[in-house]
Design brief:
Distance between the termini: 23 Å
Oligomer: single chain
CATH topology of the largest domain: Endonuclease III, domain 1
Strand content: under 5%
Largest sheet: none
Order of helices and strands: HHHHHHHHHHHH
Length: 213
DNA sequence: TTCCAGGCAATAC
DNA sequence: GTATTGCATGGA
């Protein structure tokens, strides 16, 4: 996949070091071959929020929500907790499930502050309302640079279809399988997950059946 | 118009 | 304990 698609440069980040956040993460947000992100605490928090907002949602919709959060001054834990009634919901409307996700962002902001800058363990993340296995692993892998395998719906589907392991293949089994068959480095884990998503997107564009099949 | 996206929690059986 | 349902917008 790497040879076919090239390095993906995940996790995409907004360019809000400058004053105007870019709308398309594609321009400045991806950073192929550079696994040193996040560079700032603000970027770390942005990745966490993106991981929550992208749950069952196209990334383009999430990008718009992130830009709105920056505009509203809400892409930061304390402002999220202090936001006026409905302000958070309005900012993230484009990401879908906006009421549920606003609640999730508040729950995470509280947890994040409680961490006091420490790297959260997987179990701790899973205990936060609104954070399940994929979101927890994404946050650890991309926001905290931990070598944590991320499995998504695409990866699960591909493993099943190619018969890599026998059913029932749930999240944890798929995770263990991938861990056993990949070099345990941050770069490999990040690249693998991003490439699986890219692979699935291309298959879909080429007319492959979706999740129903 | 219908389908579906980088899931998760609540509810039903 | 496993299966289903609700959450919601925007693009193809």
């Amino acid at each position: 996949m790497l040879e076919a698609y090239g390095p993906q440069g995940w996790w995409p980040l907004l360019d809000h070091a400058g004053r105007n956040p870019t709308l398309t993460g594609r321009l400045t947000g991806y950073h192929p071959g550079d696994f040193t992100f996040p560079h700032t605490e603000s970027q770390r928090f942005e990745i966490c929020c993106g991981a929550i907002l992208t749950q069952n949602t196209a990334w383009t919709n999430v990008e718009k929500a992130l830009v709105e959060l920056v505009r509203a001054g809400l892409l930061s834990p304390r402002p999220i907790l202090g936001a006026a009634e409905g302000a958070l919901e309005t900012a993230i409307r484009s990401s879908g499930y906006f009421r549920a996700k606003a609640k999730k962002l508040r729950a995470f902001a509280e947890f994040y502050l409680g961490q006091g800058g420490r790297t959260p363990g997987r179990e701790a993340l899973l205990s936060v309302w609104g954070i399940g296995p994929e979101t927890a692993d994404s946050i650890r892998l991309y926001a905290y640079g931990q070598v944590e395998m991320v499995i998504d719906a695409y990866t699960l589907r591909v493993l099943r279809r190619h018969g890599f392991c026998r059913p029932p293949l749930d999240y944890d089994r798929a995770k263990r399988y991938c861990e056993q068959h990949l070099p345990r480095t941050l770069a490999d884990y990040q690249e693998f997950h991003a490439l699986m998503v890219e692979h699935a997107k291309r298959l879909r564009a080429a007319g492959a059946p979706g999740r129903a099949a």
